[in-house]
Design brief:
Shape: elongated
Oligomer: single chain
Number of helices: 16
Radius of gyration: 28 Å
Helix content: 25-40%
């Protein structure tokens, strides 16, 4: 018995019937991000594992449990990228971009990989659209990134969203707050699972992001990071809020928002869609500032801020509206004995940029017309010896079953 192969669990095929949403999403991204001055980059899907350990954080769940890591043939420890920011930062450092341009604004679209528990719109191979802005420390850059994210979602028709904001302060703020958070949760250590106890000892701030049921009442009474900000971080956060109000952007302060990766500092934000299509996985965009990441990766001190969006969730929210009103070729050519002349006409029309199909298997005219219907062709033209002799043929409109005579030599211009 022959083995039947299936895609790996959590890694899905995208069929032609679904691709319209993806194409519209990517085209819209390039349009909107271009308006905001962001240029596209493309980085490898595999990097040295140490890049993510140092950038994302060795004690995060992404690194500890979700990385696809392996030794390659050169005995190097390689990982499929779980997110895009570390790769973008590596690219920025490796090519010494700061020496040529003090401000760089990039975006990327591509697959990411995490071995995680799946839920609606979340897979083990998933696709992200991300934006990164390097070189500007001012809160104006944070505000621009948020404006960009919301403008993109609005262009897609995803308007029912909620923006949540928090500030994580600088490294000293986080260290002091981490100590206070550790002391608080240590008083409740007896109710924490073994995994939560490990998190408490390695990275207590991660507990504030826990979704385990036992944590909800503890998190509700935990210390607030906003109460432990240094003066510069507080001023930065207040100015960001002022700029968002000036831009007529509504937001909600969420003092429990810490994000899942260690490189964030100061601004952290999420955009959440309240839609039953996503179930409990309502976050469609997450981002923030990461001013210390470049130095962690061996590069120059460079302020930076960015965000990422999961494309699978956006496609779910776009739904049927993402599909074009008409799918299928403009013209279907049916061979009724014209032989090579059908092939010549097919090539001629395609060279003119027209979407034309024919059934290369041949067969009866009846079977070819069935194929035209199956392909949802807009027009159909049957070509036989009589049509070749007169240079004319009947062009059938498949939508309303009407016909009209056309001159074959003038077919390109008429179809346009």
């Amino acid at each position: 018995m022959k083995q039947k192969f299936c895609s790996l669990r959590g890694m899905s095929d995208i069929l032609p019937s679904d691709i319209a949403a993806w194409q519209r999403l990517e085209a819209t991204a390039r349009e909107v991000f271009g308006v905001f001055g962001f240029n596209e980059i493309r980085t490898p899907i595999a990097e040295e594992t140490a890049l993510f350990e140092r950038g994302v954080g060795e004690d995060t769940e992404v690194i500890g449990k979700e990385m696809y890591s392996f030794l390659d043939k050169g005995e190097r420890n390689i990982s499929l990228r779980p997110e895009g920011t570390a790769s973008a930062a590596r690219c920025y450092i490796e090519h010494a971009v700061h020496q040529r341009e003090p401000v760089s604004k990039w975006f990327y679209i591509g697959p990411m990989f995490r071995y995680e528990r799946m839920k609606t719109g979340r897979y083990r191979q998933f696709h992200q659209l991300g934006a990164e802005a390097f070189g500007i420390a001012e809160p104006q850059q944070d505000a621009e990134l948020i404006q960009l994210a919301l403008a993109f979602l609005q262009k897609l028709g995803i308007a029912q969203v909620r923006l949540e904001l928090n500030s994580l302060g600088n490294a000293d703020c986080r260290r002091r707050f981490s100590e206070k958070t550790h002391a608080y949760f240590s008083n409740h250590r007896h109710v924490l699972s073994a995994d939560l106890q490990k998190t408490l000892d390695k990275n207590p701030l991660r507990l504030l992001d826990s979704k385990e049921e036992v944590m909800a009442p503890l998190i509700a009474s935990a210390p607030l990071l906003l109460e432990h900000l240094d003066e510069a971080s507080r001023e930065h956060f207040e100015e960001l809020q002022r700029l968002l109000r000036l831009s007529d952007i509504d937001f909600v302060l969420n003092p429990r928002l810490v994000r899942g990766l260690d490189y964030y500092s100061r601004t952290a934000f999420e955009i959440i869609a309240d839609s039953p299509l996503l179930g409990t996985a309502g976050t469609v965009c997450g981002g923030g500032r990461y001013d210390g990441l470049m130095e962690q990766l061996g590069g120059p001190s460079t302020p930076a801020v960015g965000f990422a969006m999961g494309l699978e969730r956006l496609c779910l929210l776009m739904g049927a509206d993402a599909k074009p009103g008409f799918e299928g070729p403009l013209l279907f050519l049916a061979d009724a004995g014209a032989g090579d002349e059908v092939w010549k006409l097919l090539l001629r029309l395609r060279k003119a940029g027209l979407v034309v199909e024919a059934d290369l298997r041949g067969g009866s005219v009846k079977s070819q017309l069935k194929r035209a219907n199956k392909l949802n062709a807009q027009y159909c033209l049957v070509l036989g010896e009589a049509e070749l002799q007169t240079g004319k043929a009947q062009l059938k409109d498949m939508r309303n079953s009407t016909e009209r005579e056309v001159v074959l030599a003038e077919l390109e211009g008429m179809l346009r």
